[in-house]
Amino acid sequence: MASKVKSEGGFVETIKTLVYALLIAGVFRTIFFQPFWIPSESMKDTLLIGDFVFVNKMAYGYSKYSCPFALCPISGRLFGSEPERGDVVVFRHPVNGSDFVKRLIGLPGDTIQMKDGLLYINGAVAPQTPDGFFEEVMEPQGPMGNRPRCENEVVGDGAICQKSRAIETLPNGVSHAVLNIETDGYADNTDVFTVPEGQYFFMGDNRDNSQDSRYSQNSGGVGFVPAEYLIGRADRIMFSSAGKSMLYFWTWRSDRFFRAVE
Questions:
Q1: Of residues 66, 102, 164, 240, which has the active-site annotation?
Q2: What count of other Cβ atoms lies within 10 Å of the Cβ of residue 240?
Q3: Is the pLDDT of residue 222 over 50?
Q4: What is the per-residue pLDDT across 170-196, written as a single tens digit (0 to 9) for each?
Q5: Residue 17, Cβ density class (10 Å: 0-12 exposed, 13-18 middle, ≥19 buried)
Q6: Which residue out of 42, 63, 164, 241 is catalytically annotated?
Q7: What SS3 class is residue 3?
Q8: By CB count within 10 A, which of 59, 101, 117, 145 is most buried?
Q9: pTM of the complete model beyond 0.90
């Protein structure tokens, strides 16, 4: 009898331990980190369709869109540190409420302009160094089955889709890859944007395939993003799958597992 009671007690303790572990994991996810799935090609080749990234929700402090508690501010941020130019950030779209991921380009007070496909910040060009091509197979990508856009014109399924790749260096020394599809696209030449106080300017690394701050919110773009809409910084790719389902193990990109987002 004693051994039976002991066995039942051990089972109950095991269940309690599992429940506590799940609760702790849930709290950890809610407060500190949030997984985010990449649905589009706007951040290639930094982030690919099917990447699952961990978003550090504490990187910039809490706002009403990143904090799980009612005590967080209705506007502004709580316990915040300043975002840095070049960070890859997940934020809430100020109009339609969906989550976006882009690179932070313009800080409050900055002037931003694109001229002939080059980025100018406060009147100075962010230099680009050619770095070959980004290549991928022309095929449906991810659950939505979107096909990539290519610089080497229209290619059929199974062919290699190319985009010119360059390394761009921002004024604070952060370097990252950017891709080019068109030589004179709609957003390759823009007016000068002046970033308002308390707001930020974002762009995708796949420059000709990103509805970002270069496009007004009225036209479906991101426009300027207020600080309280920032959710967190994308720090690391934890998992990556090129297929329609993450269960299709033959489409996993193991070389991207646990890769830092730069």
A1: 102
A2: 23
A3: yes
A4: 999 999 999 999 988 889 999 999 999
A5: exposed
A6: 42
A7: helix
A8: 101
A9: no
